[in-house]
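To: structure subgroup
Subject: Chain for Friday's discussion

All,

I'm putting the inputs and outputs inline so they're searchable in the archive.
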Amino acid sequence: MTAEPAIQPPASASASASAASGEESATQVLDHSLEQCLATLLEMGICASDVQERALESANSGPAHGYPAGLMGIKTAQTVQHLSTIYNLKDSVTDIHVPLQVISSVDNGKNPHSYTRDFVERLAGENMYTNGILSAVTDYRDLLYAELSQAFPDLAQYLVKDDMNGTTTEEEQQQEDAAHVMQEG
């Protein structure tokens, strides 16, 4: 009688929970378990699309020799173990907030990365628009200060510029006044 090949199961849920309290957080353990599950599902899809003789249960040698359903059976068992680990970790991870739009896009069969990409692109566009407005307001303010200083020289000392909000501290104002006096004198 031949020995069944050993399936390499993922870390058990209890081991994952203890790892979560030790070095890794529960979120990291869940993330790792999800990655393992996805990798196993990908391997299962590859096995299903490219069946080779040595991957069958009846093969005389190979990784699936003597295992029920061959290599697909091994991958199926690994997937079930990964899903079990993920299920057991569900209560230990409570701080994940997934936007409803991501969940609905997955339900509609769309890639959730497209939501993230669209969101980032929209934010970048809004950021550029806001920066453009700020730049225009700053340019207008500087032009207004210059024109007011020319038209009303007596008010020039009260027109104080600052990069962000148009105000300066008393100390900065005194330094500017001293510099202005030195230039005249």
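Points worth raising on Friday:
The chain is about 65% helix and 0% strand.
The helical segments are 13-21, 26-49, 70-89, 100-107, 112-151, 170-184.

D.
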